[in-house]
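Ligand-bound model needed. zinc ion.
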Amino acid sequence: MKMPKTVKLYCPKCGRHTTHKLKEYKKKQPSGNVWGERHKKANKLKGYGANKIKAHKTNKVYKQNKRPTFVAECAECHHKQMFSLGKRMKKVELVSVMG
Ligand SMILES: [Zn+2]
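Prediction:
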């Protein structure tokens, strides 16, 4: 789907509509030292085979497309807000719209 690079959105910090820069939100790699990861590591060493956390295996690819999240940054105060359209799309293109 094609999305414009800049849009006019309501900025809660400015209290009015301002131009926002759009970006696609990308999940960052976890640092590996967060609580969940430590918990997993600790549990792997505990108990007999049945107690181990197994990776969930699926043969089928359930759904190929994801619902992307966008990050809109206010041009005036640089306040960022995230939103999703709630639709699945194969590919996201940010297109600069003239005028
Ligand atoms: Zn603002």
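Residues 11, 13-14, 18, 74, 76-77, 79 surround zinc ion (CB under 6 Å).
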